[in-house]
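pinned: reference chain
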Amino acid sequence: MIVTKKLVPITLLSVVIALMAFVVNEKPEEVPPLHSKIEGMLIGSAIGDAAGGPVEFVDPPLRSFWTTCDQRITIEGIEELGKLFKLRPYPKDVEPFAQWEPFGPEGTITDDTRFKLILFNTLKNYNGELTLQNFARSVMDFREELPEKYRDNYDRWIPEIAYATKWALGERENAYPVERIWGGVPTMEGQMPFLPIAALNPNDPEWCYLKCYELGYFDIGIAKDINSALVAGLARALQADGDWKNFEEAMRTVDPYKYNDVLYVDRQLIKWLDLAHHLVKQADGNIAKLFDLLEENLTTTYWWETWVPIVVVMTCAEIVDYNPLASMQLMIEFGHDTDSYAQVMGAVMGAIHGKNVWPDNMSETVNRRMKEQFNQNVDDWMSLINRYKK
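pinned: its structure tokens
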């Protein structure tokens, strides 16, 4: 009895000391400073574009064990998926809406990032005056900003966009109403140039929504709302407490034109966000099943319709518990418009976690390719944002 009485207090004391040591040593996750979040958003988007470009619309898509097996993804599986994410060279010649380098090296961007070059040209050439007229003129002037070797590619890329751009500028010769672009299909085109708007005024997501809505003359129908809401969500993600929860909450609630209150009509953005969570629940941790559900439920004719990147990004992030690199890998493995999906995922992950979430070699490679090919990169973008941020 005497021995037992002595042992019990010593054991309890040891447990208490161990618990206290654990609490003291456990450090909360460090919040990245705003400049890191902004840079993380910009380079993350470019990394996603460059990673998705080489496998865009490849049939069948590249698939690994965890996206083909009949099993629930594990914690270890999520880590394995993240390790697969990488940059690849392009196995194809130049395409006007893809890469402009024949069989381009890894880190080469596509039109998703080239459109951002145009946005930053607008800031640079118009002293930060980001208006519809200035942006549209920058679209038409982009050819002269390009190295000579890319100008033929521009000429093959621009015609459909030019019809709407000239109309937006008030021209009527060789111009057509903006509502006609892409045959009247609401697309994700506004998601290509306008994600960086979030960095210009991250403390005011509504301002970011309105600015995207104003500039997006080629966003028609529900694309105006959905693409603008994405930019508002990114602005919220850039704030110090930005995470996936309040990123999505901002998308749902920032609504200056009252889409949530339209008589008799549900807001399409809410429908697709709700569907994303429903599909993840149905998949029950099985990524192969999730991919099948996405194919069955997206009701899309073209895989670049405006809601598709939103649903793909939201579902794939959630099913791997919002792991940044695993989420990016799923963009590559799902297939279809991989560069567009991955550039959105990269922007959100970078906005939340900051620039250090991306492997240094990836950031350096993409930045170097952009500078080599287009004479501007994320470093130049950061200078412009620092100059014109509100």
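why pinned: Residues 1-27 have pLDDT under 50 and may be disordered. The chain has 18 helices and no strands.
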